[in-house]
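User: I'll paste a sequence; please echo it back and then give the predicted structure.

Assistant: Echoing your sequence first, then the prediction.
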Amino acid sequence: MKINSACLSFLFLLFSFSLSFAQIDTPNKPLALTDESCLSCHGKAGFKPSVNAEDLKKSIHSELSCLDCHSDIKSLPHPTNLLKASCDSCHTESAKRYNNSSHGKALAAKIPGSPVCSDCHGAHDIYAPTHLASKLFWQNIPSTCGKCHGEILKEYNRSVHGKAVIDGKREAPVCTNCHGEHSVNESKEQISKIEPAHITETCGQCHQAKHIISKYQLPNDVVETYMQSFHGLSIRRGSLTAANCASCHGKHSILPSSDKNSSIYPGNLIKTCGQCHAGISEQFVKEKIHSGLQLKSNKSTHIVRNFYFFLIVFTIGLMLLHNFLDLYQKMKAHYQHMARLGKIVRMNTSERIQHLFLLVSFLVLAYSGFALKFPNAWWTMPFMGAIDWRGYSHRLAASIFIILCVYHIWYMFCTSKGRWQLKALLPQWIDVVQCGQTFAYYLGLRKEKPKPAFYGYIEKVEYWALVWGSIIMVITGCLLLYKEWSMKYLPKWLFDVVMTIHYYEAILACLSILIWHFYFTIFDPDVYPMKWTWVSGKSAPVDDERVNE
């Protein structure tokens, strides 16, 4: 009986000892690399770092596994010195902007407390920005940034912008509206949205937006009138020291002018303006700064403006009337002189009408065409409006130009004067010789200037250049106008070539008219101030010397 008890005791001790060994070996068995395995440890309360499984399910990364972010984990249990999860592999562009930002540069310089992705977006609780619980939900952004910028957050919450955000006004600006999201840069950097040259544009995002101005009944011309003011003109000229929006209204503590703590409260204006203008008077700060040249509230300026408006209209109008009458009388006398001078007619009525249509259509084509190419240029202002006047006027002028071309072809081949002109305008070897003789005369190598026939090389160059340019512009213009057909039958590269030819041929044509035609018909001392043939049809004295019909 004693032996049996001893055996049972021994067997019990042996079983317990074996069981303890089995329990010690269990943790060393490798676990499967699954999210459930990770959460078996990190999902426990108090385990560091702990992960809330519910947060992961609601996160925008819910479809990703733990190993997608923690890619250096090869087995479980894993080492304690793991690399930090990197967002760069998926969010490449955002990472580039962050790395070039002040935050990214601070992190690269190993400055303590530099914000990383998880500080702003969260770690495992990353929600879409539209989610109320997201750190980047628009109403939560100030508190997210305020974790690092606590004092600025206090100022912002007291401002008109901060109060509007607290009240739930969606259009109210938060940190990212002014500073950017990933590309947050210091004000001294040129690419920064709060760099002095860019502040007006940044503030104008809201203060020029019609729907915001209308909804909250804000002044609708604050940006425009600032840009017209002394400060605004200085900024537009490139000054970085001229007062901008933040200089007067503050940066984060922007308050209405009725608030005694506001930098633009009437009682604080001497101090605010005195930052740049020491000794400024109380009388001076009473006037509105924004109003610029539109000081409707300033009666003195209003009176002076109206006086000058009347003075300019009266004075310039009188000058224009005087010069018009003078021009009329001189044109009349010149026409009578040409009538007495001889019987040489260089342009008949039909040709003068053709020239007039050519002149008008060419000017409209050039003006409207370049306005289409450069839609934001200041000289396109006459075309501004709801109707696309640039396109309509360009197509109308082009239609007139094409009709004129067709008529001119008929005129040149089907009328006796046209056939004679076409023959006279054909290039000949004598034109080359006389061009060389003319250059020799200009250089002092020849005593006399050659006398060309009715049409010399100058007119021939001009005419055939016009013919060449007209063919090119009509063909390319039609291909651009009927772009659906062009896109159907032409390759993309050829369509681009057509557009390039149309643009640069227009430049060539305009420069040729300005430099060649305008010189010989306007600026040439022999005909200045103008060669009146296109009006009277009669030749100028200089033409009479070269030929008699």
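The two ends are 159 Å apart (CA to CA). The chain has three domains: 38-54+63-76, 137-286, 342-546.
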